[in-house]
Design brief:
Helix content: 10-25%
Largest sheet: 6 strands, antiparallel
Strand order of the largest sheet: 3-2-1-4-5-6
Shape: elongated
Number of helices: 2
Length: about 110
């Protein structure tokens, strides 16, 4: 006769995951405003008619915020933890893919929220 195994309780899982950028490291998540996922970049480049050109009106590198005014006059308030505000100071021409949340500054692309 075998001895029944003791019941092992499941380990508790935490839902609140913190991105490494909150601790000064590189982004460890692909949530809006964090790291740009390869699929996100590819799908944005596959839909070229949805890009909108604009000019950065304000950029705050400490908070990671940017204010972009597109050529139609619409204002977009964006946030990025990966340094988009450092790459695009006020007056910088940019392209914004509103549907997929991608900001292009020259050849550099950022995931924005």
């Amino acid at each position: 006769m075998s001895t029944p195994l003791p019941h092992i309780r499941p380990t508790e899982v935490r839902e609140g995951v913190a991105c490494m950028c909150a601790h000064g490291g590189a982004c460890s998540t692909y949530a809006p405003g964090h790291a740009l996922h390869l699929i996100q970049a590819r799908i944005a480049s596959a839909t070229p008619l949805e890009w909108t050109d604009g000019i950065v009106e304000r950029a705050d590198a400490l908070e990671g915020t940017l204010v972009v005014r597109d050529l139609d006059g619409d204002v977009h308030e964006l946030w990025n933890a990966g340094g988009a505000a450092l790459e695009a100071p006020a007056g910088t021409p940019v392209a914004l893919h509103r549907r997929y949340g991608v900001l292009a500054v020259g050849r550099a692309q950022f995931n924005v929220a």
